[in-house]
Write a structure and sequence with these properties.
The chain has 307 residues and is an alpha/beta fold. 40% of the residues lie in helices and 19% in strands. It is built from ten helices and twelve strands. The protein has a six-stranded parallel β-sheet with strand order 2-1-3-4-5-11, with helices on both faces. Strands 7-6-8-9-10-12 form a six-stranded mixed β-sheet, with helices on both faces. Helix 1 packs across helix 9 and helix 6 crosses helix 7. The radius of gyration is 21 Å and the shape is elongated. GO terms for molecular function: carbohydrate binding.
């Protein structure tokens, strides 16, 4: 096994297996479901004993889960922080217990970066920027104003904060483009639909939707259709993620562009976990490789899309 000293391999078992406690955000989106599957499958393949918890998008539940992993003396803790702030205390508890922490997918805003070993995940600012750059390019031929409704991810989460700022930065390039409304849709389909219904009534002049994930875009699509507008035509839609349902909408012409955010973080996470438990130095930041999709590219990619 990896724990040569044999005695205390953590997790309360002495079979030499690494035990990881993973505190997941929830099951809010297709992306999250694919991410959970990736983590569970990769743990199995790597021979890592995984303790998994679902926080239902609540920070207090994640903190509870992390404390229970500390109490169980797991070898390593990994988690995707639902929001960016408020982690210093529990991270300090893990550090005091000598349990390394790896952040996956979402960042924390802790000033003391010694509280975690590594952060593996996407560049969310870049994702927002790519969405905005597509809109700037697409708006070159637009005659009138480009009025954007933005559906933001969970308030206070790293992807919502960063995608909002990346997008805002990119659209500055064209004064025709205006965000007429921006609201939290909590990364879910149901909330995306509900918020879009209200925003469409308040902003009949809107002709573009930027949804910060596919699921909110898919929910909003129902509201757009119910309002008698054609998604992808009367209301252009740009989203982030590129999960199967989003890619299907894109290939069907209902979405116009998707910026990819990869949920397949499991294998790299398990590699990092093994190294860190072995006492090796690991990179502080591991960036995920990602692309973008047009409608044509979605048609090509869809048949072999795994999630
Ligand atoms: O943190 C990643 C984001 O969380 C994904 O873009 C979104 O779909 C998920 O809920």
């Amino acid at each position: 096994g990896l724990t040569a000293c044999g005695g205390d391999s953590g997790g309360g078992n002495d079979d030499g297996k690494i035990t990881m406690g993973f505190a997941q955000v929830g099951a809010e989106s297709g992306w999250r479901t694919a991410n959970t599957k990736s983590v569970q499958e990769a743990a199995k393949a790597a021979g890592i004993d995984l303790k998994f918890s679902d926080a239902q998008q609540k920070q207090e539940n994640q903190i509870k889960a992390i404390r229970s992993y500390i109490a169980q003396k797991v070898d390593v803790i990994a988690f995707s922080p639902v929001i960016e702030s408020g982690w210093d205390q529990v991270l300090k508890e893990a550090k005091d217990a000598d349990i390394p922490v790896i952040l996956t997918d979402r960042a924390v805003d802790s000033k003391d970066t010694s509280l975690y070993k590594s952060f593996i995940g996407s560049d969310f600012i870049l994702e927002g920027k790519k969405a905005g750059e597509w809109l700037v390019d697409d708006s070159k031929t637009a005659k009138g104003p480009v009025n954007v409704i933005q559906l933001e991810g969970t308030t206070g989460s790293a992807p919502a904060n960063d995608r909002t700022s990346g997008f805002a930065d990119a659209i500055k390039a064209d004064p025709k483009i205006k965000i007429v409304a921006s609201q939290d849709g909590d990364f879910t389909r149901a909330k995306g639909k509900e918020v879009m219904e209200a925003l469409l009534k308040a902003h009949p002049e809107a002709n573009v939707l930027f949804a910060q994930n596919d699921d909110m875009g898919l929910g909003a699509m129902e509201a757009i259709e119910a309002a008698g507008k054609k998604p992808g035509v009367d209301m252009k839609i740009v989203t982030i993620d590129a999960v199967k349902d989003g890619m299907t909408a894109l290939a069907n012409g209902q979405f116009n562009y998707i910026v990819e955010c990869s949920p397949l973080l499991g294998p790299q996470l398990m590699d990092l976990a093994k190294q860190v438990v072995d006492g090796k130095e690991i990179p502080k930041r591991v960036l995920t490789k990602e692309t973008t999709f047009t409608q044509e590219q979605a048609k090509t990619a869809l048949p072999s899309r795994k999630y």
